[in-house]
Amino acid sequence: MNFWLVKSEPIKYSWDKFFKDGRTFWDGVRNYQARNNLKAMKEGDLVLFYHSNEGKAVVGIAKVAKEFYQDPTTNDANWVVVDLSPVEPLKNSVSLEQIKADELLKDIGLVRQGRLSVMELKAEEFDRIVEMGS
Predict the structure, then answer these.
(1) Is 11 exposed, middle or buried (0-12, 13-18, 19+ CB in 10 A)?
(2) Is this structure's pTM higher than 0.90?
(3) Closest Cα to residue 54, out of 92, 18, 95?
(4) CA angle 121, 32, 61 (to 5 degrees)
């Protein structure tokens, strides 16, 4: 199993909306590195849901429900989506400041490549953020 983090502006697509919807395709990715990360996702992989811009915090856990396929919002074959389903919200959101302050997390993509919208996490990084949110 692999572990990931995806970012969404809550004004565009919030955790609450995602949880209510029960499943969504993750579209709008227009960065090749993020696209390659979508292509690497496997059904059942766990994903942290991060609110960017407003909030700047990890707020929930999702899972990959369907592996990559053509992004239905564009005819450009370069872009793909995956289907995600919510698993559970974190009891306490984990802020970017908390993540930056944690020695184990100081080198994760969220800190090193702040603009990347889809990134892989190591199992221990995923576990640490979930622990911080408990």
Answers:
(1) exposed
(2) yes
(3) 95
(4) 30
